Amino acid sequence: MDDPYDQYPEDTDRRRFVKGVVGAGALTGVVAPAASMIDSLTAPPGAGGGPTDYMGIEKTGGPAPRGMPQIPLEYDDEGNLKGIWPEVEMQQVGGQTVPIAEMELGGKLYSTTWYQYCGSQNNPAIEPDADLDNTIRYTANPAYDWQSNQVEAGDPVRAEHFSDYDGWGNVIGESGIGKPAKVTWRSTELEPRDRIPVQLIRSPLIEEAAKDDEWLEASTVDGFIAIHNQCTHFCCVPGYKDPGQTDAMAYGAGDSIYCQCHQSVYDPFTIIEQDFIALPRSD
Ligand code: FES
User: Fold this and answer.
1) Using one digit for the tens of pLDDT, what is the confidence trace for 207-266?
2) Ligand 1 contacts CB of residue 66 (under 6 A)
3) Stretch 106-121: mean pLDDT
């Protein structure tokens, strides 16, 4: 899934506000510049890309140029976990009128432009005005035994499935750090190739960090954090405590998200503001 157009500048990690979770600092946040800002001289043709600030997990090792973006979460009226998708507005961008989905959230400007890399910019699930199911749902062929045994593909994620999250463990890394699931969002009704890969973790570390962090308080619920799980290097799908990726241990990534394609490592408990050049949608 290499994407020759997906070339990123060095990430800047300009504002770090959860460092190793312990001692998470208060959000000092200045609202990020509009995600819809387009540098028409450098961006490829299309709509809704350009320089973008986003909140994501920190890349801590390997060749990936930057961290992976977060998907903000909330519960719906029935207690199912749901990814937040902003209201859509038509905006003038680079001389075109285009739909933009963005909103203020936790002191930041959350935009669906965050997910426009690795070909996802052309995924129908990422279309700002696509009216799709925002419920977080389990995928088929999960890496985790608990997921195979206790829930079905397509089921909505609920907190009671994770009641043992503060003690859960498997053969990878330490127990009690976070219980994972392989899930998707906005794409269960689409072709399998268009399913959005999401790494979900419920962790006491996130729950604790959200107590004094405006962004995490707004974007996580009950210790649940969701990551758009496409490696920023060459777009592989990494794993967290994936028993099929035992080499994670050799790279010190037993408690991290690990990409076995070229050994990039991401810390899902260090959430920082980062930036990249979002690729424009082909529409
Ligand atoms: S490290 Fe190369 S694709 Fe993930």
Assistant:
1) 999 999 999 999 999 999 999 999 999 999 999 999 999 899 999 999 999 999 999 999
2) no
3) 96
Q: How far is the CA of 264 from the centre of ligand 1 (A)?
A: 6
* Containing structural domain, residue 81: 15-278
State the amino acid at position 115 in one-letter form: Y
Ligand 1 proximity of 251 Cβ (cutoff 6 Å): no
Q: What pLDDT does 35 receive?
A: 34
Quick check: 118 pLDDT over 70? yes
Residue nearest to atom 1 of ligand 1 (CA): 262
What is the number of domains present in the chain?
1
- Asked if 206 and 200 touch (Cβ cutoff 8 Å), the reply is no
- The confidence score (pLDDT) of residue 45 equals 53
229 three-class SS: coil
Decide whether any atom of ligand 1 lies within 6 Å of the 204 Cβ. Answer: no
From residue 52, how far is each of 31, 230, 249 by CA, in Å? 12, 17, 33
Cα 195 to ligand 1 centroid, rounded to whole Å: 19
Q: pLDDT: is 45 or 187 the higher one? A: 187
Per the domain annotation, does 283 fall within a domain? no
Residue 61 lies in a domain: yes
Q: Could you tell me if residue 9 is inside a domain?
A: no
- 198 CB contacts (<8 Å, ≥6 apart)? 71, 83, 136, 182, 183, 184, 185, 226, 227, 228, 229
Distance 25 CA to ligand 1 centre (A): 30
What is the C-alpha separation between 216 and 72, in angstroms, rounded? 9
* Structural domain contains residue 1: no
